[in-house]
Amino acid sequence: MTRHKIFRIILLISRFGLAALFLFTAGAKLWILKTFASSVAELLSASGVNPVRWMWTTTIAVIAVEIVTALCLLLQRTVRAGALMAAALLIGFSSFALFYVYVLHGEPLECGCFGNIIGSQLGLTTALRNLALLVPTFIVFFGYRQQSHATIRNLEQADVIV
Fold first, then answer.
1. For residue 113, what are the β-bridge partners?
2. What φ, ψ does residue 96 adopt, rounded to 5°?
3. Which residues contact 92 (CB under 8 A, 6 or more apart)?
């Protein structure tokens, strides 16, 4: 097996693995929607944001962006945009986890990232997990090339031959 084929396999695993991860986390949050919304409210309150006003908006926005990110990773034309969105989400979630624990000195709080399926408290381990997920995100962003570029090149070469 050539390096190109191995990289292609790693790229596909990274791409579809990230899409599955974001669909899974969105679905898990939807499964425990009220519990997740109350966790969001606690985080908003600790951050000095009005939780009553922004709880549902933030909850729905997080879930919607995760779903859109997964769809972008699945659709061939938007893979790189999906990778950028995934990186932004992962960096944003990591930054907030570190901000909550180390700047706001917040109490340990179940983030609800994976619903009730996988327990995960905000903090260093959450941030490190999310930052580790940047590796497949960068593989997808820098490694993915749309088929249309190769097709355009082939058409240009065919025009030269004709």
1. 115
2. -65, -40
3. none
Nearest to 77 by CA among 22, 144, 128: 144
Q: Which residues are within 8 A (CB) of 22 and not within 5 positions of it... i.e. 6 or more apart?
A: 66, 67, 69, 70, 73, 86, 89
Question: Tokens 């972008």 belong to which residue?
Answer: 72
Q: Which amino acid is located at 158 in the chain?
A: A
Question: How many residues comprise the chain?
Answer: 162
How much is the pTM?
0.82
DSSP 77: G
Angle at 135 between CA 130 and CA 140, to 5 degrees: 115
Of 146, 112, 143, the closest CA to residue 8 belongs to: 143
CA distance 30 to 115: 8
Query: For residue 8, what is the enclosing H or E element?
Result: helix 3-31
Model confidence pLDDT, tens digit, residues 123-154: 788 888 899 999 999 999 999 886 545 544 55
Rounded Cα distance between 125 and 65, Å, is 23
**Cα 86 to Cα 37, 80, 146, 153, distances in angstroms:** 21, 10, 18, 30
Tokens of 127: 């941030």
